[in-house]
Every structure is written in structure tokens, then in C-alpha cells.
Amino acid sequence: MRILGITLPENKRIEIGLTAIYGVGRPLAHTILDKAKVAYGLKPKDITIAEENAIRKVIESFKIEGDLKREVSGNIKRLKDIKTYRGSRHQKGLPSRGQRTKTNARTRRGARKTMGTGRKIAEKK
């Protein structure tokens, strides 16, 4: 089953499979399936064409995938352009929500780069 160019996993329940789409989590997946009147426990391979079309129609009413990515990147660009504190943190690749950076923050800052003391160079001279 393909929705918006994304192939949903065939052997997972539809409520879990919908989360493969960017911007769809479990709560939104439940909302989509409730509006489309499809059971959560069905697998994508067992869904009828009518149910599949109902799910597609409901999903089109939400902002997901490319539109959502564009909106998020636009919001970040706006913060950078107006030179807010949050925008400057995004530019520097640091956490923007007040977390400590002396330790941790590895997700944003990347892998550790060990700094040497410079002792070995001094000994050789």
C-alpha cells in the first residue's frame, strides 16, 4: 500500500504503518483511521481498495510530508533571518531549548573531538 509516495510496511498493523509517513504519529494515525472508519488492527495487505481510498482522502486534509517539511524549514529560516536567539542556536548547530552544553548535547554537536594537551610536541623539541 502506497500513500503519498511512501510504501507502508505490509506486515505491521495499519496504525503503526501510517507512522512511516513524516508528520504522522500514533495519535494522528488513530484520528485518520477513525475518520476513515478502518480498524486499527488491520494489516495494509488486508485492506480493501475502498478503505485505502478513504484513508488517502482523510490524509490529504492534513499537512504532512513535503508541505510540513517546507513549513518547518521556513519557520527556522524566519528565526535566523530576524536574528532571534533560537535562530542563532540553529545556525550554530546547538540545542535551542535551554539544554546544557558543557556535557551532553551530542545529538546537535556531533561526535566528541578529543583535544590534546600539546605535551608530546614539546617533549620532542
Précis, in short:
This protein has 125 residues and is mainly alpha-helical. Helices cover 48% and strands 3% of the residues.
List the helices and strands and how they pair.
Blueprint: E1 2-3, E2 6-7, H1 14-17, H2 26-36, H3 49-59, H4 66-81, H5 85-92, H6 106-109, H7 119-124
Helix pairs in contact: 2-3, 4-5
Lateral arrangement of strands in the main beta sheet: 1-2
As residue ranges, the low-confidence spans are: none
N/C terminus separation: 68 Å
Count helical runs. Answer: 7
CATH topology of the largest domain: Helicase, Ruva Protein, domain 3
Strand content: under 5%
Kindly give the count of domains. Answer: 2
Helix content: 40-55%
Major sheet details: 2 strands, antiparallel
Could you characterize the architecture of this molecule?
The chain is 48% helix and 3% strand. With 125 residues, it is mainly alpha-helical. The protein has two domains: 2-59, Orthogonal Bundle (Helicase, Ruva Protein, domain 3), CATH 1.10.8; 65-96, no CATH class. Strands 1-2 form a two-stranded antiparallel ribbon. Strand 1 and strand 2 form a beta hairpin. Keywords: Ribonucleoprotein, Ribosomal protein, RNA-binding, rRNA-binding, tRNA-binding. Belongs to the universal ribosomal protein uS13 family. Part of the 30S ribosomal subunit. Forms a loose heterodimer with protein S19. Forms two bridges to the 50S subunit in the 70S ribosome.
